Amino acid sequence: MLPPMAQRVLVVEDEEDIAFPLVRTLEREGYDVSWVDSGQTALDSLTSEPAAVVILDLGLPDMDGLEVCRRARDAGYEGAIMIVTARAGELDRVVGLDYGADDYLAKPFGLAELQARVRALLRRTSGSTAAGSDANGHGLRIDVDARRVYAGADEVTLTGKEFEVLNILAANRDKVVSRGRLMADVWDENWYGSTKTLDVTIGRLRQKLEGVGVTERVVAVRGVGFRLEGGPAHA
C-alpha cells in the first residue's frame, strides 16, 4: 500500500471547468487532492506540503507551466510531474520533458486515461523511493531500446535528457566524457543556450541514482566533463 504522502496529488489548473472534474475524479480514486490556479501558489504548496504527483497545466495566468516545472525541480522536488496542455506540438512535448516533466497529456483527454497515467506515475515514483531504503549495492541496468533504467528490480524514473546523458556516460564507463560532447550529442551541436542546462540535468541524475542506492557514481572532472564510475551496466 502506498504511504499517505504518495497519494497526494496537486492539480495546477486555472480553468475551473477543467479542474473540478479532475479533482472529483481523483478524489473518487482515493487520492488526497489539492487544487491551485497559479504557478507561484503551486510552488508554495510544494514547499509546505510535498505531493507525489503534480498535474500541471502550461497556460497559467502568472507564469508559464514550464517555468513552474523548472523551478520545482531546481528547488529539489523529486515527485512526478505530468504536463497537461492544449499545446499538442512535438516541440512543446520535448521541451516539457527537458524541463523535468515525467509525462505529457494533450487536451482534450479522457479522465480514464488521466487516471491510468497517474497510477503509472505513482507506481514508478514509489518503486524508486522504496529502492533507496533497501536496494543499496544494486548496479544499474539500462534497457537502451525501451529507454528505461533499473536499479535491481525497480525502475529509476528519468527524463529524456537524463536518460541520454546516462546512456552516453555508461557507454564510456570510467572514461571522461567532455561537456562539449554531451551538449552536442544530447542537446544539439547548434545549441546556443547556457551549459547550465547540462549541470542541472547532471544534478538531477545524481540525485536519482544516489536515491536508489546504486553502486555507480557520476563524477565531475573539473574543467573537462563527467565520468561514470562503478560496476558495469547491461541491458
Care to describe what's here?
The chain is an alpha/beta fold. It has 2 domains: 4-131, Rossmann fold (3-Layer(aba) Sandwich), CATH 3.40.50.2300; 137-229, Winged helix-like DNA-binding domain superfamily/Winged helix DNA-binding domain (Arc Repressor Mutant, subunit A), CATH 1.10.10.10. Helix content is 44%, strand content 20%. The chain is built from 8 helices and 11 strands. Strand 3 (53-57), helix 3 (65-74) and strand 4 (80-85) form a beta-alpha-beta unit. It is globular and about 55 Å long. Mean pLDDT is 80; it is low at 1-6 and 127-136. Residues 131-230 form the OmpR/PhoB-type domain. Residues 131-230 bind DNA. The modification 4-aspartylphosphate is found at residue 57. This is Response regulator transcription factor.
Proportion of residues in helical segments: 40-55%
Q: Number of folding domains?
A: 2
Q: Taking all residues together, what is the mean pLDDT?
A: 80
User: What is the class of the largest domain in the CATH system?
Assistant: Alpha Beta
Poorly predicted tracts of residues: 1-6, 127-136
- Report the end-to-end length measured between terminal Cα atoms: 30 Å
Q: Which secondary-structure class do the elements indicate? A: alpha/beta
Summary?
With 235 residues, the protein is α/β, with parallel strands linked by helices.
